Amino acid sequence: MVARRMERLTLDVAILGGGLAGSLLARQLRRTLSQLRVGVFEKASESSYKVGESTVEIASNYLIRRLGLSAYLYDRHLPKNGLRFFFDTPAKDAALHEMTELGTVALPFHPSFQVNRARLERDLWERNRADGVRLWTNVRAHDLDLGSDGAQHRFAFSGDGIAGSCESRWLVDAAGRASMVARVKGLRVPEPEHAIAAVWGRFTGVRDLDEFGPESFRARVRHSSRMLSTVHFCYPGYWIWFIPLKEGVTSVGVVGDRECVDAVCRTKAGFVDFLQRHRAVASLLDVAEMLDVGSYAQLAYSTTRFFSADRWGLSGEAAAFTDPFYSPGSDFIALENDFLTDLIRRDVAGENATAFGERVELYDEFMRFRHEATMLLYRGLYSTLGSYELYRLKWDLDIACYYNLWVAPYMLDQHLDADYLRAQLREKTFILQALRNFADLFRKVESRLRERDQLHRGNLGRFAAPLDHVPYFDEVGTPRTRQAVLARTAEAFNLIRGRALDLLDDLPEPTVRTPLPLTAFMTSRPLA
After folding, report:
1. Strands 162-173 and 312-314
2. Which helix (H) or strand (E) holds 492?
3. β-bridge pairing 230-235 and 238-244
4. Architecture of 78-114+196-296 per CATH?
5. What ranges do the domains of the chain cover?
6. Alpha helices (H) along 39-194
7. E-strand spans in 209-334?
8. I need a labelling partner for 196 at 20 to 30 A (CA). Which of 236, 314, 357, 514 fits?
9. What pLDDT is stored for residue 1 in this prediction?
10. Which residues, 6 or more positions from 382, have their beta carbon under 8 angstroms from its beta carbon?
11. Is the pLDDT of residue 2 over 60?
12. CA 77 → CA 69, 160, 290, 328, 363, distances in Å?
């Protein structure tokens, strides 16, 4: 029998899980509150490949500004050339250069990255250790006893050659879908209305999109790098991603309704067969080799609570997950880690219990609001993905709201301002109603296009840049008045509604309509 080393630990912050969420939080705490004793407990013995490689603007701003990783990301990972979308025929037989494309013609104004998760987490482990974070790998945490009313949290841990116990003032669960805190507290909430599954793998030898197709195909994006984009091939009920990683590896996956991504599709052979049934996708993979495969039968779920005044919290997939379509996972990590860091800072500074409890509730309610607002972008709308004309409406709405309502406040740190959050939460019901109204409108347009057999009529031969209808994206991150934000929102809402009505009525030219006031979009009255 091999003798085990016994440890008895006392920490200020114990983090369960050394993946992306936990490792980023540990780095943030060391940069912000360097006096704290921070420990990370990770069940794996080494970092491994994971999905979630694509970052968008909030997460990238967090990684650069909060965590000081700008030079590292450009050196060790790939810059991302935005999101790119391709649309196909019902028979899935269009050549890539024939497909309608929505995609950038230059690297975005605001940076984002394609990251190799295994490398990023391994490098964070090394940096965190060097910064004084205590990291235990190949250990399993168990027998969790969450303290209340000021009591310490306690748990045991064990692994090869080690066993011990830990007590900590703060406990953060960042251990992914196996979340111990969610199980102990009964926090997990299923998402039956958004029953989507996924299967994915890494490939070598994927064709280079920047050397693909005729000269006219490459010239239409002004020879900008398609290869660096997060590429989406869109179909009714599902989509296929291509994400480049460094050193010749590409992540490829399918996400969709369970009728599309069924149990057979979620096997290695079924996955390969599914991809081969799409001409453009198959042409990119014709000489590729698969390295590995993984899957989930259900992606989305939510939580009843993110943070507690009893000094525990959740980050990343230990809390909730929406959908990978717009790569929001690391955005949520950025918000959760910012809130956790601020709460820990307030606790360490001795903020009185009443003020601290109010701040916890404010952050928690905002995260639940943010989660639901994101779910409304996807719930019941996967069937709309296969039509360029319809999806272009949805994209223009989604990206306008993302920049105007979410990215801009984050870059100005307004999410940490109590008055700003209270104002947002007072409008929560109206914002969510507006998103429901547009979801209903998109479903009406889809139904009408199907009735007229026009769902795919715009899927060949077109090209558009994705920010054509967001002329203010370069203003994002600069101070703006509330009136300016509301004006931009009303402008986007009216533009999308007008174009949707044109599609419903099958009008050949845009119709000039009297703009509706912003309040008209936030009642239960239908938009069409």
Report:
1. parallel
2. helix 482-505
3. antiparallel
4. 2-Layer Sandwich (3.30)
5. 5-51+117-189+301-358, 78-114+196-296, 387-522
6. 57-61, 70-76, 117-130, 180-185
7. 230-235, 238-244, 249-257, 289-296, 301-303, 307-308, 312-314
8. 314
9. 46
10. 196, 236, 237, 238, 256, 257
11. no
12. 11, 32, 21, 19, 32
Residue 3 has pLDDT above 90, yes or no: no
Q: Are 323 and 378 in contact (CB under 8 A)?
A: yes
Determine the Cα–Cα distance for residues 85 and 102; give it in Å rounded to an integer: 5
CATH number of 5-51+117-189+301-358: 3.50.50.60
Q: Which amino acid is at 120?
A: L
- Residues in the chain, total: 528
At position 498, the amino acid (one-letter code) is G
pTM of the model as a whole: 0.97
Q: Which residues contact 326 (CB under 8 A, 6 or more apart)?
A: 56, 83, 377, 398, 402
Among the listed residues 405, 342, 449, the one whose alpha carbon sits nearest the alpha carbon of residue 29: 342
Q: What is the 3-state secondary structure (H, E, C) of 185-225?
A: HCCEEECHHHCEEEEEEEEECCCCHHHCCCHHHHHCCCCCC
Q: Which two tokens stand for residue 328?
A: 């929001």
Q: Compute CA distances 143 → 52, 327, 375, 433, whole Å.
A: 30, 34, 33, 42
Q: Residues 484, 485, 487, 492: what is their CA dihedral angle, to the nearest 10 degrees?
A: 140
CB 53 within 8 A of CB 243: yes
Give Cα 4 to chain centroid, integer Å. 40
Helices within 285-427 (DSSP H only): 329-348, 353-375, 388-401, 408-411, 418-426
